[in-house]
């Protein structure tokens, strides 16, 4: 299916105009910011999902596989994976169910905590994670739609938004952004 033709006007700019016209001008910039971020999210997810679709992965499953490849042992407790991915434990369980069915991960008992279950990546999962990362690097991450100084500005602004929302707190430790 070909992508839709670009609109001949910016719908968010038009919404901003309408917000102002209807007496909500004092919050029109905020509405435009929120709506812009949400639309940008849709665009980015669509690009990522298009690259991952041939491999049978969703972005959530890809993130989990990649997280596991970054660990020393290739395994993490389910609760820790949920915390690191900043998603509800049910979402991790769902992703693990699908990945396990595809033989990309397996559940194993935690060696020292009978209450915990580890998610362990298989060799097939590791291979698919690396291949998918290479495709995403080439087709999406190398061309995110914003370049140079603007890209760093964007990440800095989004990091501020995330920090203010309580997404992370590094205390006094310096961060890149």
What order do the helices and strands come in, and which of them pair?
Layout: H1 11-21, H2 25-52, H3 59-69, E1 75-77, H4 78-85, H5 89-101, E2 105-109, E3 117-121, H6 123-141, H7 148-164
Antiparallel strand pairs: 1-3, 2-3
Taking all Cα atoms into account, the compactness measure Rg is: 20 Å
Strand order within the widest beta sheet = 1-3-2
Report how far the terminal alpha carbons are from each other.
38 Å
Shape: globular
By DSSP (H or I, 4+ residues per run), the number of helices equals: 7
Strand content: 5-15%
Average pLDDT metric = 95
Structural class: mainly alpha
User: Which percent range fits the helix content?
Assistant: 55-70%
Spans with pLDDT under 50 lasting ≥5 residues? Answer: none
Number of strands: 3
In quaternary terms, these chains amount to single chain
**SSE string, helix = H, strand = E?**
HHHEHHEEHH
User: Could you give a short account of the major beta sheet?
Assistant: 3 strands, antiparallel
Descriptive tags:
177 residues; mainly alpha
Task: Summarize, please.
The chain is mostly helical and 177 residues long.
What can you tell me about this protein's structure?
The protein is mainly alpha-helical and 177 residues long. The protein has helices at 11-21, 25-52, 59-69, 78-85, 89-101, 123-141, 148-164; strands spanning 75-77, 105-109, 117-121. Strands 1-3-2 form a 3-stranded antiparallel sheet. A hairpin with a 7-residue loop joins strand 2 and strand 3. The model has no long low-confidence stretch (mean pLDDT 95).
């Amino acid at each position: 299916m070909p992508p839709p033709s670009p609109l001949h006007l910016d719908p968010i700019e038009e919404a901003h105009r309408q917000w102002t016209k209807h007496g909500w001008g004092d919050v029109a910039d905020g509405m435009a910011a929120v709506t812009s971020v949400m639309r940008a999210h849709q665009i980015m997810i669509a690009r990522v999902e298009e690259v991952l679709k041939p491999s049978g992965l969703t972005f959530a499953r890809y993130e989990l596989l990649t997280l596991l490849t970054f660990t020393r042992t290739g395994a993490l407790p389910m609760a820790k994976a949920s915390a690191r991915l900043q998603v509800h434990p049910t979402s991790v369980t769902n992703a693990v169910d699908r990945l396990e069915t595809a033989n990309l991960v397996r559940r194993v008992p935690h060696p020292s905590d009978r209450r915990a279950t580890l998610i362990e990546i298989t060799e097939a999962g590791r291979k698919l994670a690396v291949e998918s990362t290479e495709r995403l690097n080439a087709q999406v991450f190398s061309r995110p739609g914003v370049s140079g100084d603007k890209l760093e500005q964007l990440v800095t602004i989004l990091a501020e938004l995330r920090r203010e929302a309580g997404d992370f707190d590094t205390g006094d430790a310096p961060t890149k952004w």
